[in-house]
Amino acid sequence: MTMEQMIPTVIFAAMAILLIGLSLIVVTAKSVFRSAIALTAALGIVAGIFALLGADFVAASQLLIYVGGIMIIMLFVIMLSQRSTALTERQTNEQWLWGALFALAVTCALIVQFRAVYRGVFATSVPTPTSVAIGRLLLGDMIVPFEAISLVLLAALVGAVYFGLDYEEKL
Amino acid sequence: MTLSLHHFLMLSAILFGIGIYGVLSRRNILGILMSIELMFNAANINLIAFNHFLYPDQVWGHGFVIFVMTLAAAEAVVGLSLVLAIYRNIKSVYTEKLNILHG
Q1: Considering only CB atoms, which chain B residues are within 8 Å of A20?
Q2: Dist. CA B3–CA B13, nearest whole Å
Q3: Mind telling me how many Å the CA of B103 is from chain A's nearest CA?
Q4: pLDDT, tens only, A126-157
Q5: Counting C-beta atoms within 10 Å of the first and last residue's C-beta, which end of chain B has fewer, N or C?
């Protein structure tokens, strides 16, 4: 095995360990702010995995939309809605043990299936730039969902403004 | 050991399981929303991995991931403004406090 074949494996292993550790922090941290910071880092590592899989445009969009957009809004809302007493309160409900068992069961079932079916499927080509192909796809075969999603975004915008209004100011 | 498709699928399965645990066990609505984002990302890793290993000459997986990201952004915006409205009304973001409809 040559050095060039080892490098992606080592990078993948490092990113997988970091990603799993950060996501465990996201779901277990007592402070919601800390879990939001961990989620920001985890989404950045997911962008790295996209890049490892040859998805250059999607990796860049992941960084722009998730890390730069969604997480900033989430941090604002956390800072607007948390009280300092939350740090001393319990952050899990009574069914956390059953939730953990269920999540473990789902994960094990998925892993067994994936190992059985997709073991030994290797990449057959080297990654190429994808931006041109994605642009042609979005404005060609995917034009209907592309137009529909602009309506969804408009509805989300109006909904966010409506819910964000003060109660007395509402029509 | 060369990377194969099932390595990426196993990583996304673990990420999905962690997200399920977060959704089921968190008391805080914001924690539940963040766990849902984790599950979205597990699904996105699956789409990109299948695209890369099985259909390397097409980009349908990338297109779907872009749509999932856009919908996640819309969902986060509406969900977070709902959280703020709830917080203004009942001064709490814990799920067990949201029972004012059951009389």
Answers
A1: 11, 14-15, 18
A2: 16
A3: 22
A4: 888 889 999 999 999 999 999 999 999 999 99
A5: C
For residue A35, the model assigns a pLDDT of 92
Look at B10 and A12 and tell me if their CB atoms are within 8 Å.
Answer: no
* Cβ–Cβ contact B68 with A under 8 A: no
Q: Which candidate from A9, A26, A86 shows the least CB-CB separation from B2?
A: A9
| A134 and A144 both lie in a single domain | no
Angle between helices B5-25 and B29-54 (to 10 degrees): 170
Report pLDDT digits (tens) over B48-93.
Answer: 999 999 998 889 999 999 999 999 999 999 999 988 888 888 888 8
Counted domains in chain A: 2
pLDDT, residue A82, reads: 78
Best residue of A7, A9, A27 to probe chain B, by most B CBs closer than 10 Å: A27
Distances (CA, A) of A77 to A33, A82, A118: 10, 8, 41
Q: Across the interface, do B73 and A24 touch by the CB < 8 Å criterion? A: no
The whole-angstrom separation of Cα A16 and Cα A129 is: 24
CA distance A164 to A10: 46
Structural domain that includes position A17: 3-138
Q: Is there a single domain that holds both residue A74 and residue A156?
A: no
Q: Which of residues 12-51 of B touch A (CB under 8 A)?
A: 13-28, 30-31, 33-35, 37-38, 41, 44-45, 48-49, 51
User: B23 is in which domain, residue-wise?
Assistant: 5-102
For the entire predicted model, the pTM comes to 0.90
